[in-house]
Amino acid sequence: MVKELYTTFQKIHRRKDYLLMDNVDSYILHADLDAFYASVEQILNPALKHKPILVGGRPESRGVVATASYEARAFGIRSAMPMRRAVQLCPDAIIVPPNFAQYKAFSARVMAILKEYSEVLENVSLDEAYIDISNNVKIPSDALNIGLEIKNQVKLETGLIISIGISSNKTTSKIASDLNKPDGLVFIPLGQELKLTSHLNVNKIPGIGPKSTQKLNQLGINTIGQLCAQPTDFFTRIFGSQGNKIQWKSSGNYKERLQTVRNPKAISTETTFREDIIDKSSITEELHQLTSKLASNAIDKSIKGKTIRIKVRFEDFTTHTSQTTLVSPTNELEILREASLYLLDRILVQPRPIRLLGISLSNFDNEPSIQLTLL
Ligand code: DCP
Ligand code: MG
Fold this sequence. Notes:
Layout: H1 2-13, H2 16-20, E1 28-33, H3 36-44, E2 53-56, E3 65-68, H4 70-73, H5 83-89, E4 94-96, H6 100-117, E5 121-125, E6 128-132, H7 140-158, E7 162-167, H8 170-179, E8 185-187, H9 193-197, H10 210-218, H11 224-228, H12 232-239, H13 243-251, E9 266-277, H14 280-300, E10 305-314, E11 319-330, H15 333-347, E12 354-364
Parallel strand pairs: 2-4, 7-8
Antiparallel strand pairs: 1-6, 1-7, 2-3, 5-6, 9-12, 10-11, 10-12
This protein binds 2'-deoxycytidine-5'-triphosphate (DCP) and magnesium ion.
2'-deoxycytidine-5'-triphosphate is lined by residues 32-37, 66-67, 79-80, 127-128, 181-182.
């Protein structure tokens, strides 16, 4: 498959007009590991290779699927599906509890490989990153060779399979890395961004979630091409202040700089109870524990935040949040506790069984300005 793509690519790029534009081009590579947690488990325990495996919580404790191996995905199992439903779809699936320390270690090895190809790296999550390879690309075929090399090196050094997309900007590179999963390598030449993505569903655009997708579909807009053909005021009407950005993204020409410094916008912690809880003192005790965890996490990271938010999910899965913003940033346990109890009382006006409780801290005092440029 990779070979085929490569040949097509060479044919396209022998064209002179394209090469002339080369010096104004930038090359952004997006890399995303395939079935990440599940693949790590299969490497650590080769007996799991080629088998349907589900990484996540046990079905009897209302666990959900964090990820499923591709063998399990063939049964229709997807991330975030309740484990109980997943084992109904594939009774032979092997359930493995998550081992985050291992995922972190594998992730660090992959990120180190990516860093060898460019210092300009944006680490999106454990299994996903962008690198700007513009400086290492003299002719467009260099970009594809870098992609191939990275794939080989990651496979050789870690055993993991990584999918790669390369194009002139982050949006279309992310779309590209997903196009041929698993083991994908897709290059979108400069100027072909819209042509090669216009047939795809609008939800492929990063930033267009399920709600916006539904809204667009109701208006008869299903593909990126149809979306891109809309006038500017349509985008403002549907997406508000984000309209302009989404319009650029849909055209395949949204150029943004990589965010190379990892700045979390919020830190949070939450817990799903084995059994719903209704007793106020138990709820308060659980909230205290979560708040202590949050405070020590903030102190470890030397982060102070002004906004405290709590999340409560009731037995019927309805989720309520409430937040408050203090005059000055904090990570002090006592202040966080007081704020969290105040917020809990705002949500819990009457006793109701709760299945999940969460707390987060955001609006950090040293929040850097966002690096965003629309070229
Ligand atoms: N993850 C999770 N819960 C989700 C989605 C993902 O815990 N709802 C975790 C498990 C994944 C990892 O994050 O292994 C990376 O997420 P991806 O969306 O990239 O999914 P995968 O890497 O598992 O699969 P793919 O091959 O589609 O990238
Ligand atoms: Mg992945």
